[in-house]
């Protein structure tokens, strides 16, 4: 046997996702690269690990046993890595964070220097919608969550990080063509929503209710990136967080539309279950943010604080 840890990691992800395509996305590899490594691993066993029926990949009974062995091997490798670093005096462990989808424009900047200072700490960051974030927090699957709208049904502690501003936006070509965008224009335009459970959707619905705007034509999309592309294509208008459209504003493809009552302002908050028993890695991260957040926000997000439509 001459399989590699890389092959084992790839196979474990294929088993988890039941898909070469999904595994390649999680691992940030091309689909052909994942397929090649799967074949190299398979070539070392006389019994099939997988089988393809139609376009669906299935894991054989033997493949499931190999996957369990992969878990044990990789867990031991992970443990050895951290024990080695601990002997060298480094803080070690795993930090688990769940982040609402727009938070992906914030959290990497808040955690980058911390990880650079603590090479023994690994991070697992799940970027998803608000409903899934709250679920992972409630079930104690994560150390922290990052949200812009605070859950009301959980007993939480929190650290406010920075403001979150939401504006009415449209594609540049559509905004230029219409020239003036008011309630009458919005009443007859396609309005582009995030999916149910999204905090951005909640804010957009509050905006429409406050302005007594009936929704005649609507489209629902499951990510901010999809909403942005629909807006750039000129399909309609939406209410989006400013933090996620920096590049599109800079290149002129999306325009922020001045509108009475906007921006809607909430706050980005780091939240955790009250009385949560932190690991050393989680406790160190919270201490780091409390001490450094003002500097981090000033250095990384001054453009956001200074923005005016």
End-to-end Cα distance? 62 Å
Unreliable residue stretches: none
CATH class of the largest domain: Alpha Beta
* CATH domain fold name of the largest domain: D-Maltodextrin-Binding Protein, domain 2
Q: Main β-sheet, in a few words?
A: 7 strands, mixed
Order of helices and strands: HHHEEHEHEHEEHHEHEHEHEEH
| Count of extended strands | 11
> Radius of gyration from the CA trace?
23 Å
The assigned CATH architecture of the largest domain is 3-Layer(aba) Sandwich
User: Given the structure, what is the number of helices?
Assistant: 12
Number of domains: 3
Tell me what portion of residues adopts beta-strand conformation.
15-25%
The CATH superfamily of the largest domain is identified as Periplasmic binding protein-like II
- Shape annotation: globular
Q: What would a concise description of this structure say?
A:
With 309 residues, this protein is of the alpha/beta class. The protein has 12 helices and 11 strands.
């Amino acid at each position: 046997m001459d399989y590699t840890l890389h092959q084992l990691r790839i196979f474990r992800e294929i088993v988890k996702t039941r898909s070469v395509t999904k595994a390649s996305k999680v691992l940030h590899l091309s689909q052909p690269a994942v397929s090649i490594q799967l074949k190299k691993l398979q070539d070392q066993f006389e019994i099939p690990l997988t089988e393809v029926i139609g376009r669906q990949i299935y894991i054989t009974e033997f493949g499931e046993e190999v996957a369990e062995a992969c878990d044990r091997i990789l867990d031991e490798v992970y443990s050895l890595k951290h024990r080695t670093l601990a002997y060298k005096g480094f803080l070690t462990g795993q930090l688990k964070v769940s982040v609402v989808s727009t938070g992906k424009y914030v959290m990497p900047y808040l955690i980058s220097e911390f990880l650079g200072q603590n090479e023994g700490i690994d991070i697992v960051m799940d970027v998803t919608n608000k409903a899934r974030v709250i679920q992972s927090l409630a079930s104690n699957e994560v150390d922290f969550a990052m949200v812009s709208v605070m859950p009301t049904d959980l007993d939480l502690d929190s650290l406010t990080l920075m403001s979150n501003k939401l504006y009415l936006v449209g594609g540049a070509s559509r905004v230029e063509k219409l020239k003036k965008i008011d309630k009458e224009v919005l009443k007859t335009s396609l309005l582009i929503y995030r999916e149910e459970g999204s905090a951005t959707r909640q804010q957009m619905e509050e905006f429409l209710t406050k302005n007594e705007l009936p929704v005649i034509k609507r489209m629902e999309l499951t990510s901010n990136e999809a909403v942005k592309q629909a807006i750039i294509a000129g399909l309609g208008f939406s209410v989006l967080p400013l933090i996620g459209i920096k590049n599109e504003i800079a290149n002129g493809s999306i325009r922020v539309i001045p509108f009475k009552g906007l921006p809607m302002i909430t706050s980005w908050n780091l939240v955790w279950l009250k009385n949560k028993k932190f690991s050393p890695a989680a406790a160190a991260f919270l201490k780091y943010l409390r001490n450094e957040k003002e500097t981090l926000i000033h250095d990384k997000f001054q453009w956001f604080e200074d923005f005016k439509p």
